[in-house]
Design a protein that fits this description.
It is a single chain. This protein is of the alpha+beta class and about 110 residues long. The two termini are about 30 Å apart. The longest helix has 7 residues. It has a single domain, classed as NE0471 N-terminal domain-like (2-Layer Sandwich), CATH 3.30.2020.30. Helices cover about 15% and strands about 35% of the residues. Bound molecules: zinc ion (ZN).
Length: about 110
């Protein structure tokens, strides 16, 4: 058996991704499938503007453009990034969030 330090190196592979209705369906390299509602995905957007930035004083600042409309929960396009993340282009032109595979895996429970 390998020591623990090797365990976290293994990276999940994404075999397939589809948007079906109002969910994203992900098929992972280990054969597991995951369905994430688009609204959950958008609200979890990891970009600095959505998730907020902490300044040197420790105050959390959130972006200003946060009125989510119905288009905000629709996906126009998904661009794979470097084999480890998906960039999602939302219906309201928001596209700065990079959803890493680890992040996506953590969302679907
Ligand atoms: Zn965002």
């Amino acid at each position: 058996m390998l020591d623990g330090e090797y365990v976290s190196v293994a990276r999940m592979k994404l075999d397939d991704m589809q948007v079906i209705g109002d969910e994203m369906a992900l098929k992972w390299g280990d054969g597991s499938e995951q369905f994430i509602p688009l609204e959950v995905l958008r609200r979890a957007c990891p970009c600095a503007s959505c998730s907020g930035e902490v300044d040197v004083m420790g105050n959390l600042h959130k972006g200003l453009s946060h009125t989510l409309r119905s288009e905000s929960f629709q996906i126009r396009r998904v661009q794979p990034v470097g084999g480890y993340a998906l960039q999602i282009f939302w219906g309201d032109e928001h596209n700065t969030g990079l959803y890493s595979y680890d992040f996506l895996l953590g969302l679907g429970e």
